[in-house]
Amino acid sequence: MSIPRVFLYSIFHLLSSRKEEFLLAFFVLTAPLQIRWFLKDLTQLVDVEWTQAWVWLSDFVLLALVAVWIWRGGHKATRAMWPILFSVPVFVLAALSPNPILGLWSAVKLAEGLALFSYVRANKNIAFSRASIISFVAIVTIMAVVAIAQFWLQHDLGLQKIGESELSPNLPAVAKFELPDGSKLMRAYSLAPHPNIAAVIFLAGIFVISWLYIKRGVGLVWRFSFKRLKQELVLGVSLFVLLFALAVTFSRSAWMGFVLGIGVLVAGIVIIPTLLRVYIFEALRFMLLVIAIVGLLYFAVPGMQIRTHINSQEQAVTLRKFFSEQAIEMLKEKPILGVGPGQFVEELAARHIVNLPGERLTLGPIFLQPVHNVPFLWAAEYGLPIAMLFLLFGMWLFLRKLFNIIRESGPASSLQRLLAVSLFASFVSLFMFDHFFWTLQQGRLLFFLTLAFL
């Protein structure tokens, strides 16, 4: 065999499906982490996260993963990447926008998410491999322990090399809230850039635990066994740790998504006959366990009871109202083409500059954020036509999965599909109250991963 052929055979062996599993597992490990390198500010706004270009470790891993897939799959893999065409009109809008560089960077990040979506849709056997599941469980467990330790100590753990932010209740940019005695309580960030993103990662982990718990209904015999006791301890402790970590992020929108998602999961098991016969007892047991743990955390974790009350005058509410009003104004002025991909914050700043020598910005840094509603963000930046296209595509995937659950005869596969629908339903509720699923790396990757499971 000639040297070139030996070389090509060696590369093919290196890029075999087995190696691809470990590459995907490494991507699962790196995707939630805030490991990144700054490129440049893409506007005249300085130190504004939403108008900067960053390169993430997960970018490189995903690029390698897609390259391996195309090498292995050839034309079949290329054809499977048709969803990336949804980014084409965004690239066109970017070229026509007031800030083409920022717009093109936003379009590139959208294309990246669509590439991940395409890969997972075409390779679900690899996506659900043992290596990927172990990696996900490992990183979520590590992040949960870090979050609990941060809350306990009320400062960071010095893990900046793997993405931890510098944290303290005394730092102005750190998320915190005031207790009745006037002291400040810091929300846990874990290894994510914001508590809400950490909360969503824990939420995904909780749904995986729910699936592992409920799926045991197949062939389950109601008698004592050490095997079952071991399962109860492992799953119960894991669920407690993740719910504890979710609690110390104090993310109200994540708890809302949790209630909605778990409600959809249990309701689906009750409504669908094939699932009702097999899984109803395990689903009820799981619900009782969740209620017991949440009740314990509600009374035991300082600040939990305070965060359940929402004051219409608090900053989290007034800011969301302000951003929504600004998005509606932008949409009224540019309903077809929008203000440009990724350019909501830049447009917001431009609307609040005093026309005096030096052009003084009247908004503080806390006001320079995207609108906390993803459909509003789509409409304001891309215009109504593209926003409607995105919404219709998501609805088509969601309804298609629902019909597949109803038609599916096997209870195990139906439960997996119901889990994907439940997780997506919980994320949709978060869509309405935050923007990170579209504007931050971890949220965007998690969103497209969940969308691919539909």
Quick structural summary:
This protein has 454 residues and is mainly alpha-helical. The chain has helices at residues 3-14, 17-30, 57-73, 75-80, 88-96, 100-122, 124-127, 130-153, 195-214, 226-249, 252-271, 273-300, 304-307, 315-333, 344-350, 374-382, 384-407, 411-431, 436-439, 441-453, and strands at 36-41, 52-56, 176-178, 184-186, 353-354, 360-361. The protein is built from 20 helices and six strands.
List keywords for this structure.
20 helices; 454 residues; two-stranded antiparallel ribbon
Descriptive overview:
It is a multi-pass membrane protein. This protein has 454 residues and is mostly helical. It folds into two domains: 3-124, no CATH class; 128-309 and 383-453, no CATH class. The protein has 20 helices and six strands. The chain has a two-stranded antiparallel sheet. Helix 5 (88-96) packs antiparallel against helix 6 (100-122) and helix 11 runs antiparallel to helix 12 (273-300). The longest helix has 28 residues, at 273-300. Residues 6-15 have low confidence and may be disordered.
Count of DSSP-assigned helices = 20
What's the alpha carbon Rg, rounded to whole Å?
Answer: 23 Å
Task: Kindly report the oligomeric state of this protein.
Answer: single chain
Largest sheet: 2 strands, antiparallel
Q: What strand order characterises the main sheet?
A: 1-2
Q: Which range does the strand content fall in?
A: under 5%
- The arrangement of helices and strands along the chain is HHEEHHHHHHEEHHHHHHHEEHHHHH
Give the overall average pLDDT: 86
- Helical proportion? 55-70%
Low-pLDDT ranges = 6-15
Report the strand count.
6
Number of domains: 2
Q: What gap, in angstroms, lies between the N and C termini?
A: 46 Å
Which class do the helix and strand fractions yield?
A: mainly alpha
